[in-house]
Design a protein that fits this description.
25 strands, FAD/NAD(P)-binding domain, 516 residues, alpha/beta
Length: 516
């Protein structure tokens, strides 16, 4: 496989024609069709795997080293699952796919004329050429123009988000215990606010309620965890709007049975360290004192759609999603496919199945072009249904015309999510943890640290983030480091040889008289 991740590019071939690249031992060698996949989420992973048997080389570029099963992030945040169970290393997942390689880096630029992708990690820039490009970079949390809310209300889009929220949730109970021992108020510490009544918000609110009423009820002495107040807020008039009015009402009733306070028709106007401010349709305002707040109210397409729009003229919608052709390509660039949360096509929802099916469609289109076959029909999404858990043994499911609730829906949710968890060992451990948490009351992943809670904020106060914490890769520094390592290696080898000599000669522990 030819290395496509060179520091510079001298150009690439267009369309499906072959190109040449330098190979060790040969001046030039034929280069296979190069496919670059941006993102390691559902779209990126399934698109890469769909090209396993193809006569192409695939380079996946992603800002993380793992494939994230995002629908189960809330279970990491509430101590049910470990992060490794829902985020296996991408390299491990693709280890057996010989035509695939993985590069770590955040894509900062796409040159559609030169057909190159520029990525960076800790100040190290890399340029990768492509013949075909699949952009599956996903989306981020949207605060609807109020990005400063993120400082005090983390989203739920990454492992970092989930671990920070885990620290904030369990840390709030610990701080409440201390405050109660000192005779101070604990109301603001034991109030948990979830903004957004979509699937993520509903699942998060339900699990915090269960956590406080089942898991932690015997763990504290100065407070009663069952007194925790869990508030779910949404500007819409119902819970789970995409599921329809009937299932939305059913979900609201089930949440209220758990003790969740559901507030609808209220917009968030301010968020600070100590609480959150709401505004109702009748202009009333309300302040809720809460230290632990989480945001699950909206999404924004990855910023790469902006650079794609500038180069193709394709329009963006309010959520930053780019309008694509019916075959998921961009105007004037049939070699570029965009899939998943980033596209605006036929009112498709931002769910995993749209990304998976779109990525497979793009991979098939690339294969057909290389084989000289006629193009496919326009992309058509097959809706496999939607599911959301409310609490243990309670869920809602919308599958075609069927609307299911309760234990049956929960079992269906369990089976479907288990099927899409990547890796056999992760499936086994997930089942064991679910048994502990749902049949029993324990949660095995309750470890939380200050670094998890405050690391994001600390990094955000650095002008260049983590890049400020390391030295640039200067050539002289690298040479000096290499020389120092070589000297140390020789020293360690000499020590090892002397240790072996002492053992073999029987001299260890034997006192030698000084020569006169």
């Amino acid at each position: 496989m030819t290395d496509t991740s060179t520091g510079t590019s001298s150009g690439t071939s267009s369309g499906t024609t072959t190109a040449t690249a330098a190979v060790a031992g040969h001046p030039e060698a034929p280069r296979r069709h190069q496919v670059v996949v941006i993102g390691s989420g559902f779209g990126g992973l399934f698109g890469t795997k769909a090209l396993k048997g193809s006569d192409v080389d695939v380079t996946m570029i992603a800002r993380t080293t793992h494939h994230l099963f995002q629908p189960l992030l809330y279970q990491v945040a509430t101590g049910i699952l470990s992060e490794g169970e829902i985020a296996p290393p991408t390299r491990e997942v693709l280890a057996r796919q010989k035509n695939a390689s993985v590069l770590l880096g955040e894509v900062t630029a796409i040159d559609m004329d030169a057909q190159t992708v520029t990525s960076q990690v800790l100040g190290r820039e890399n340029v990768t050429p492509y013949d075909s490009l699949i952009v599956a970079a996903g989306s981020s949390q949207s605060y609807f123009g109020n990005d400063h809310f993120a400082e005090f209300a983390p989203g739920m889009k990454s492992i970092d988000d989930a671990l920070e929220l885990r620290g904030r949730i369990f840390g709030a109970f610990e701080l409440a215990e201390l405050a109660a021992l000192q005779g101070r108020s604990t109301d603001h510490l034991l109030t948990f606010v979830v903004v957004g009544a979509g699937p993520t918000g509903v699942e998060m609110a339900g699990q915090i309620a269960e956590l406080s009423r089942r898991t932690l009820k015997r763990d504290f002495r100065a407070i009663s965890s069952r007194d925790a107040r869990v508030v779910l807020i949404d500007a819409a008039g119902q819970v789970l709007p995409p599921f329809g009015a009937k299932l939305g009402q059913k979900t609201k009733r089930e949440l209220e049975k758990l003790g969740v306070e559901v507030i609808l028709g209220a917009m968030v106007t301010d968020v600070d360290e100590r609480g959150i401010t709401l505004k109702y349709k009748d202009d009333r305002t309300e302040r809720i004192e809460s230290v632990t707040k989480m945001w699950a109210a909206g999404v924004q397409a990855n910023a790469l759609t902006k650079t794609l729009a500038e180069q193709t003229g394709a329009p963006l919608d309010r959520a930053g999603r780019i309008a694509v052709n019916p075959d998921l390509t961009l105007p004037g660039h049939p070699e570029v496919f965009v899939v998943g949360d980033m596209i605006n096509l036929d009112h498709l929802p931002g769910v995993a199945q749209v990304a998976i099916q779109g990525a497979k469609y793009a991979a098939d289109a690339i294969d057909r072009r290389l084989e000289g076959k006629p193009p496919q029909k326009p992309f058509k999404y097959f809706d496999k249904g939607s599911m959301a858990t409310i609490s243990r043994f309670r869920a809602v499911a919308l599958i075609g015309r069927f609307r299911l609730t309760g234990f049956i829906a929960w079992l269906m949710w369990l089976v479907v999510h288990l099927f899409y968890v990547t890796g056999f060992k992760n499936r086994v451990t997930a089942v064991l943890h679910w048994a502990v948490s749902f049949v029993g009351r324990g949660r095995s992943e309750r470890t939380a640290t200050e670094q998890q809670i405050f690391g994001r904020l600390a990094m955000g106060r650095l002008d260049r983030g983590a890049q400020e914490l390391i030295s640039p890769p200067e050539v002289e520094d690298l040479l000096e480091t290499t020389r120092a390592f070589e000297a140390r290696r020789q020293e360690l080898e000499a020590i090892a040889r002397e240790e072996a000599r002492l053992t073999d000669s029987g001299e260890r522990g034997v006192r030698h008289e000084a020569e006169v």
